[in-house]
Amino acid sequence: MLQYSLTAALLYMLLDQVQFFNLDEVASKVSALSLTGRNGSSHHPSLGIKEHNMAALKTFTGGLLLRHIQQLVCNAHAITSLESKTMQEDDVVVTTEQVRIATAIYPSASLMNHACNPNIISNFPFGSTLVVRAVRNIAAGEEVLNCYGPHYQRMSFSERRQTLQEQYFFTCNCTACAAGEDAEQRLQALKCEYCDGPLNMPDDSGKAACLDCGT
């Protein structure tokens, strides 16, 4: 909370430095916005910003900055770009890397719940336009699930739970997390020659049993 408050204070100081609060047009618009609702009804006078009350205007603006910063923490979506590194001689792609270039709030996308094994993927093929695509068949009535960052193929079970709890304040119970450490073991295991299932780690005798068929 402290870092968000400091960020809001810094932005407030920058606005004050460029004399944002001295603009009569800005002051009048914010005053009208705070005093009148969408249906034309007036808010309680103690909650509004009276005209020409510069101190109240600054307090109101600082509060808005802090509110939007707090909303970004749980609702923002990273805008990324896929950058490729090529060899100069034959122009062959050597590596590709997903780079974050901005952060934005997409109201519809922010309604999707998280899963460490999501059924959709988000990308930005048209600049800042967010496009959501299914990565597997989604049955009628099945929930559309996004990944908030911790993916079961990139992070361990304990790391995912800790990250989600610290940033989004919930304990994930998706299918990948319900499988717990077993899902990680399956991803890293060798394939059983009899049933194509995952082989367990070898025991002291050097034998690796299959997690599915037991051979």
Molecular structure report:
The chain has a domain at 109-120 and 141-214. It has six helices and six strands, in the order αααββββββααα. The protein has a two-stranded antiparallel ribbon with strand order 1-2. Strands 3-6 form a two-stranded parallel ribbon. Strands 4-5 form a two-stranded antiparallel sheet. It has helices at residues 2-17, 24-35, 54-75, 157-168, 175-179, 181-188, and strands at residues 76-86, 93-105, 113-114, 120-126, 129-134, 145-146. Helix 1 crosses helix 3 (54-75). Residues 40-51 have low confidence and may be disordered. It comes from Hyalomma excavatum. One of its GO terms (molecular function) is protein methyltransferase activity.
What tags apply to this protein structure?
alpha+beta; SMYD4_SET; signal; 35% helix; methyltransferase; two-stranded antiparallel ribbon; two-stranded parallel sheet; elongated; 215 residues; protein methyltransferase activity; transferase
Give a summary of the structure in a few sentences.
By secondary structure, the chain is of the alpha+beta class. The chain has 6 helices and 6 strands, in the order H-H-H-E-E-E-E-E-E-H-H-H.
The share of residues in helices is 25-40%
Number of helices: 6
- How confident is the prediction overall: mean pLDDT? 78
Radius of gyration: 25 Å
Contiguous low-pLDDT stretches (5 residues minimum) are: 40-51
Strands across the major sheet, in which order? 1-2
| Coarse shape | elongated
* SS strand fraction: 15-25%
Distance between the termini: 53 Å
Structural class: alpha+beta
- What is the H/E string? HHHEEEEEEHHH
Largest sheet: 2 strands, antiparallel
Number of distinct beta strands:
6
